[in-house]
Amino acid sequence: MMLGTPESRNFSPYKRMWVSFGDRELIPFTQRATEARKRLPSLKRLLASCRLCAWECEARRLRGDLGECGLDGRLYLSSTSLHHGEEPVISGERGSGTVFFTGCNLHCPFCQNFMFSKLHHGRPVTPKTLAAKMIRLAREGAHNINLVTPTPQIAPVLEALILAWDEGLDLPIIYNCGGYENVETLRLLDGLIDVYLPDLKYGSDDAGRLSGPKDHFTRSLAAIHEMKRQVGPLALDEEGVAKQGLIVRHLVLPGGLSDTDHVLQTISEQVGQDTAVSLMCQYFPIEPVSDHPALGRPLSAIEYGRAIKAMHHYGLTNGWMQKFRAPHTVRKWEPRKEM
User: What is the number of structural domains in the chain?
Assistant: First the structure.
């Protein structure tokens, strides 16, 4: 199946024309630090007996206990870089200022980013250090600051953002997360986040048990509704780069494990057909699932083709698909050497 001409590495345009629905009002960059300082104590209270994500595990992370995410209360950073492999409206021409945090609040056995989510590659840093790295990304030409899996550490991350905003940072902030979010936490970020980039990984709570939670679909959908309430549909700037709005990602899993048809139906009927969707086929088996009857093999072209047809069927005409390239080997799960 021809997927179109790639515009940002593996991504192809699903539809080139974007409908303008008008921007929701966000807090001006010059006022964000002041407003964020008011909200920071509430986020720290959520962290103290941790309820930052939808697990609400109540671990005393500031005292050194580990949460469901496997992290204590410190800020752990894996890497920062200008990333050119995201969706075209995220990477743009100059790249996305990507900040990869260590750890994750989900337990996906097939995680494609296992180096930092599972093996916890990274190191503790201060909010001041993180703020300096954000400023550096801006000076290098980044279109945005792309926070990857920030939820377990959002309190110290917000401290870093406050310092960066004080220094004049005026790039869109992208909240790039796994979707299993606590709406209470998201409401404390209202007006401070420009673009939400969550996953809707599964089409039912039962399917979502693969990643750990018993209520994955229910909580993720509630979070996506809150995100859209805050930022509205996707809006682009004069360079064709996202300046505000919601993009929902979905990774198609082999063997129908992600319940993709119902994911796309739910987005269309409950979130809205104006929602930008990134339909991904980049699944590859990693060593821990090499013996799994479904996850132990790559996604097939036929399975991804069915997902594309479903996207058409449910009227989701804003977004992207990927050029299909099936991997042929299992990726080994090995610790990365510290630099």
Answer: 1
Characterize 256-280 residue by residue with b for buried, 16 or more Cβ atoms within 10 angstroms of its Cβ, and e for exposed: ebbbbbebbbbbbeebeebbbbbbb
Structural domain harbouring 35? 11-243
- Angle (nearest 5°) at CA 216 between 294 and 250: 60
Q: Smallest Cα–Cα separation from 286: which of 165, 70, 111, 65?
A: 111
How high does pLDDT run on average in the chain?
91
| CATH code, domain with 75 | 3.20.20
**Structure tokens that stand for 200 in this block:** 């809707």
Claim: this prediction has a pTM higher than 0.85: yes
Residue 320 counted as domain residue: no
Burial of 56-83, coded b for 16+ CB within 10 Å and e otherwise, reads: bbebebeeeeebbbbbbbebbbbbbbbb
Give tens-digit pLDDT for 234-270: 999 999 999 999 999 999 999 999 999 999 999 999 9
- Decide if 275 is inside a domain: no
Backbone angles phi, psi at 125, to 5 degrees: -135, 165
Please check whether residue 107 lies inside any domain of the structure. Answer: yes
User: Could you identify the residue written with the tokens 């629905």?
Assistant: 21
Q: Using an 8 Å Cβ cutoff, are 84 and 90 in contact?
A: no
Residue 89 lies in a domain: yes
Alpha-carbon distance of 195 to 232, in angstroms, equals 9
Residue 246 CA to residue 264 CA, distance in Å, equals: 15
Phi-psi region of 320 (alpha: psi -120 to 50; beta: other; left: phi over 0): beta
